[in-house]
Amino acid sequence: MREVQGKAKTVRELLQGTKYSIDYYQREYKWEQKQIRELIDDLTDAFLEDYRDGHPRERVGDYGRYFLGSIIVSEKQGTSYIVDGQQRLTSLTLLLIFLRNLQGKDGPENDVDVDELIFSKKYGKKSFNLDVPERTPCMEALFDQKPYDETDRTESIQNIVARYRDIEEHFGDALKEKSLPYFVDWLIENVHLVEITAFSDDDAYTIFETMNDRGLSLSPTDMLKGYVLANIVDEGRRTTANDRWKERVRLLEDVGKEVSADFFKAWLRSQHAKRIRERKKGAKPEEFDRIGTEFHRWVRDQSKSLGLNESDDFFRFVDRDLDFYSRQYLRIVGASTQRTLGLEPIRYNAQLGFTLQNMVLLAPLRPEDTDQQAQQKLRLVGRYIDILLAWRQWNYRTISYSGMTYAMFVVIREIRGKTQPDELAATLHKMLSAETETFATTDTLRLHQRNSWFIRSLLARLTDYVEIESGGASRYEEYLAEQTKNRHEIEHIWGDEPETHAEEFPYAGEFSEYRNRIGGLLLLPKKFNASFGKRPYEEKREQYNGQNLLARSLHANCYNLNPGFLQFTERTGLPFQTHEQFHKQDLDARQALYRQIAERVWDPALLLQEAES
User: Fold this and answer.
1) Would you tell me how many other CB atoms lie within 10 Å of the CB of residue 176?
2) Are 313 and 82 in contact (CB under 8 A)?
3) Rounded to whole angstroms, how far apart are CA atoms 462 and 598?
4) Spatial distance between the Cα atoms of 264 and 516, rounded to a whole number of angstroms
5) Quick check: 34 and 232 in contact, CB under 8 A?
């Protein structure tokens, strides 16, 4: 092996003035929602350990450092080719683009210039520091905050667009105001990576293989298994427990690489965490936090409080508890990826990226539950979360991991081990009754840059409800499918032409705000937007008559020879009406209609009704 260089660098030192490329044989960008959210949460938590309102900006230099890992590059013809680390660098670049676009609200004097960490210019031509030509149009669109259609693009490009949306939706509100420039300063000056540089591909790959293949350390799951089995005295029972453990963990890992570790964290938190760390400097990690970082050590340290005293207790831990909760966890994972009869809310919550739901769903379950009882409890908790998330987003509140962790911990403690579904339903209903923000607390819900996925899923739910209640089949999954030629998109009933509405809206900004309100939106196939999106309402209205039932309800023909829909409106009393034209008062009427539909879809009374069924 020839010369190898290793150097710790800040994000600024790593990215400023350096070009990184990826060879054609490198794998695609594959980070999923889980990885990008964990990155944001880790960075946010580390920053908030030190940040205090009132600190001068220069105080950031004294904040703690954060190690983001290493990258391995092969230096060839003056260009650094990434051998290992492109997932991390791509994600970091996306975060920097987002932060760059987010800045500017308080005036340019407070901005942190990150442009040189994202791209450079030569002879007037811009090129990204992570220079992958096939990604350039996509990255430019994100940088310039312009729409980009990733349909039928490569896996990398589809994932890049999806992860940027995840960043938009998950980035905590606490960092979007005064603290934003402090966070950007901290990210680029206090976050470090180690860059390991070799000067041939062979040497670079040798380093990569050595770091990843030699001396493989045991995972927390392996170490927990060793501890538990070592405390089962009878050899026959130990063999039985070992077989059971391997079987259950294999089924979890068949779903995904990190699913088994996620399961143990969710299970142990749901059943045993009694305290959580306070979010202030110097606060010590509590049970909830330790389970998330070292669950194997936590079980060993807390064995007595967990009832693990004798050999039989350790056997029961595997043979009964692990078996039961892992089966329920796999049921949750299955319902998260595909709508399952009776567990539909779990799918809805998962599609909003609400990964906290898994441990909350496990909280009321007991190994003594029958399969029917477990299913009913899962449905009730899923319904509760579904309603809570809808209310929060309707009122522009965050549902991010960091913003919701404490609230979900409180819910877990309240519902842990509830024996009967009716008792659980009453508790969940009581908690919703204590909420101060519902659909009634705002009538101005509108589409904006960071809630497009919620608005799209909201429209899908409202549309699906109207069609099912009118006797039709569910098309919910079709409405939210991403990679299809008939992808559905948000349709503005009004075209973006403020001058045509100047009589009602003398100011363009007022028109734009109203145009984006939920009452002026539909969910329609992309090809409809391409063909009719800019036409006047009177022309589009005729085309709406051939679309989904919520769109058709604008047209008079929807109210003729449509018995299922008419029976639905008569039964519910929902104020559907035809709209020959679409003025401000028409949009207001649709806004009120959508709110009343939402109040039926997300009705807390459903919890009590389902407990009785």
Assistant:
1) 14
2) no
3) 7
4) 43
5) no
According to DSSP, the β-strands at 119-122 and 125-128 are antiparallel
The SS3 assignment for 240 reads: helix
Query: What whole-number distance in Å separates Cα of residue 455 and Cα of residue 594?
Result: 12
Treating both helix axes as pointing N-terminal to C-terminal, what angle do 180-190 and 86-102 enclose, rounded to 10 degrees? 150
DSSP lists the bridge partners of residue 194 as 8, 70
The pLDDT tens digits of the residues spanning 387-413 come to 999 999 999 998 888 789 999 999 999
Q: What residues form DSSP beta bridges with 67?
A: 192
Which range, of 9-18, 112-121, 170-179, 295-304, averages the lowest pLDDT?
Answer: 170-179
Q: Which two tokens stand for residue 455?
A: 């608005």
Which pLDDT band, with edges at 50, 70 and 90, does 85 fall under? confident
303: burial class by Cβ within 10 Å (0-12, 13-18, 19+)?
middle
Catalogue the E-assigned strands of 413-566: 488-492, 521-525
What is the per-residue pLDDT for 23? 66
Q: Where are the domains of the chain?
A: 4-213, 217-337, 341-436, 443-605
Global pTM value? 0.77
Residues in the chain: 613
Within 10 angstroms of residue 342's Cβ, the number of other Cβ atoms is 14
CB–CB of 132/22 below 8 Å? Answer: yes
Output the average pLDDT for the chain.
Answer: 88
Q: In this structure, what token pair is assigned to residue 446?
A: 């509108």
Q: Are 321 and 417 in contact (CB under 8 A)?
A: no
Bigger pLDDT: 535 vs 321: 321
Residue 69 has pLDDT above 90, yes or no: no
User: Scanning the structure block, which residue is given the tokens 């194997």?
Assistant: 296
DSSP letters for 451-478: -HHHHHHHHHHHHHHHHHHTT----HHH
Report which of 571, 607, 190 is spatially closest to residue 376, judged by C-alpha positions. Answer: 607
